[in-house]
Each structure stands twice: as structure tokens, then as C-alpha cells.
């Protein structure tokens, strides 16, 4: 018999909240005996990841997931066996009443943001608040044993290996996006927030001996790219060349296609949470633009991840990678940091593969959630 899950998602901003919950919901129905309702308060952000979504529908089925628009005026609804409040979102009061009224008390989880900080290990799985007799638990994704792990679909790495070993499939995928890759050019994808360090980086790539083809899905960083190019604005399909650098604006692709883009590229600049994890599964060198938080709390998270990620690297490559990531996240010194990273390119490539493999040896987040439920009952 299937276990009923309700996943609640409020879209705070951007695509990470819906990106994570949509991915989790799909994986639970595809790989586990779960029936999932996904409650989302903003279907427009969701539509970017899943273009067949009907943003006017209050209920619809997408890839086996029962997608519900989470309305401001909540209608009475029975609670599920497992209730996931993503990123500490506040459940409707009437729904919490429904949880408490159930004959069999549901498992209530707060799925938290991803962090590499050490304290995550100590807090994962601990009880949080109660509503009447219903206990809520913290569930922390993470990179270390003792955390909830990372989202990773069952066949993901096999599919990645096949795709990365298949130049024809890669060429066809890129051609579908209007990208003709010159064999000598290094392919880089760029997904980032506005970044004052971008001009420096583009400049150094334009002046390099090695050719670079930079693919920029439309989004927040495009204004900085346009400014450096001296263009009033950029649109999907635009291609501009400056020296050794070709810049091409891509459409924002559907979520499953974004993986293919990352798998094609030699280097991926990513941001937030979900694209950050997907770039790790791409097993290629990468650059993370972390989501900025109040009181610079994000800088601790950046350092915590760097400590873990660079642990097995040579001191010189480690310093180069840390320098690059810190430059990107402070918006300063990208030119020198990029040149420095080039000297360690083979090690960065090998390390990206080793890291992806190491992380893949742990239970994935969806499996860990299901196991948590089984242990709890
Ligand atoms: O969009 P993000 O910056 O999201 C978030 C949110 O801001 C959130 O509030 C914050 O807390 C969190 O970051 C840390 O970055 P993220 O998490 O990488 O989500 C982007 C999603 O968009 C991800 O699922 C991949 C997807 N995507 C596509 O589907 N197609 C594309 O072309 C691109 C570039 C991304």
C-alpha cells in the first residue's frame, strides 16, 4: 500500500524552493511506494521548470505527482501520512488541526536548507516544535554521514556517464538549444545572481589563448553580461564574440534538460541550492555563487563547503579553488583567481569526479526520508 505524502512549498524567491520540492516529489513517486501531493503557493515559478504546468489549475497531475495550488483561503483537507514543510514554511492552521485529528498521527518534517556546516550532523532528525500531540522533526540535507544526504535520482549517474560518453547525443542536445560547439572551445555554463566580479572574469577569458564558449541561460546575471558587452540588453539566441570569448544567451530550459546542459559543459557556474547539487553530480569543475543571507551568514556556509570539498586536494590546487570561489562570492579578483585555477585544471577535473563518486555512495535524500518514516513507524 502506498504511503501518502504532502509536501508544502512556499516560493520565497527564485527557483530553489520549487526546484528542490518538485524534484523530491517526482522521485518519491517514481522510486518509492508513495502518493505525493505537492502544494505550491506560486505556480509561475514552477512553470519555468515544468512548462506543461497549467498555472490556472487548482489541481493537476504532473509526472505522477498530484500538484495543488496552495491557496490563500485554505479549504479543509485531510492530512497525509507524512507531511513535509519545505524550508520551514508555515502550514495552514486548519491543516495542522487535520494532522492532529488523524487516527494515525502523521510524521511531520521540516525539510531544511542544505548546508555543509558541522552542526547539521548533530541536529538532523531531532524533534522540533509540537502542534498538540503532533511532533515535528528537523530533516537536514547534507554532505556528511549523519545528515539526510542529497537529492539524487536512482539512475542519475548512469545516465550521466552514458551521456558524457556520447558526443552525438551531446551535439544534438546543444543543437536543440542553437549551440554549435567549436571543438577547440571550452564550454562553460553560467547561472548566477548579479555579480560585480563578472566583468573581470569575462575580460580574462576574452584575452586568453584558449577559446571559451559561455552559455548563459536567461536570468539575473544577464544584465551584468550585457553591460560588459556594451549592449543595452540581451535576448535568448543572442551570440556575441569578444576576443577568445563567445557569449551565447540560452533559454531557461526545463529542469530535466538543465542536467544535460551541465553534463555537456567543461565548467559550470551555479548558484543557490539545487543547481549547486546538480553541478556536483555533473562531475565537472564548478563555481558556486551562494545565496546571500543576512549578516553574511552565507559566508560560513561557503567556507564549510570548501573545507569538505577541498579536503582531499593538493594544497596548491586547494588554494586555487578556494581563491576562485571566494573571489566570485566577494565580487573581486576574478581575473587572477581564474588564471590561478587554470594551472590545476587536470586536478580540478579529477577531483570533481572523485567528489561526485564519494557523495553518490551515500543514501540519497528521498531514500533517507522514506527510511526515516519507516524507522519512525
Ligand atoms: O534559483 P535559485 O537561486 O534558488 C534559491 C532560492 O533563491 C531560495 O530562496 C534560496 O533559499 C536558495 O536558492 C538557496 O537557485 P537553485 O537552488 O539552483 O534553483 C534553480 C533551479 O532552476 C534548479 O532547480 C535548476 C533550475 N533551472 C532550470 O530548470 N533551468 C535552467 O535553465 C536553469 C538555469 C535552472
UniProtKB/TrEMBL annotation:
A GO molecular function annotation here is: translation elongation factor activity
What does the UniProt keyword field contain? Elongation factor, Glycosyltransferase, Protein biosynthesis, Transferase
Q: Which residues form a coiled coil?
A: none
Question: Which residue windows are transmembrane per the record?
Answer: none
Task: Provide the catalytic activity annotation.
Answer: dTDP-beta-L-rhamnose + L-arginyl-[protein] = N(omega)-(alpha-L-rhamnosyl)-L-arginyl-[protein] + dTDP + H(+)
* UniProt superkingdom: Bacteria
A Pfam family of this chain: EarP
What family is reported? Belongs to the glycosyltransferase 104 family.
Task: Describe the task this protein carries out.
Answer: Protein-arginine rhamnosyltransferase that catalyzes the transfer of a single rhamnose to elongation factor P (EF-P) on 'Lys-32', a modification required for EF-P-dependent rescue of polyproline stalled ribosomes.
Protein name (record): Protein-arginine rhamnosyltransferase
- Source organism: Pseudomonas kielensis
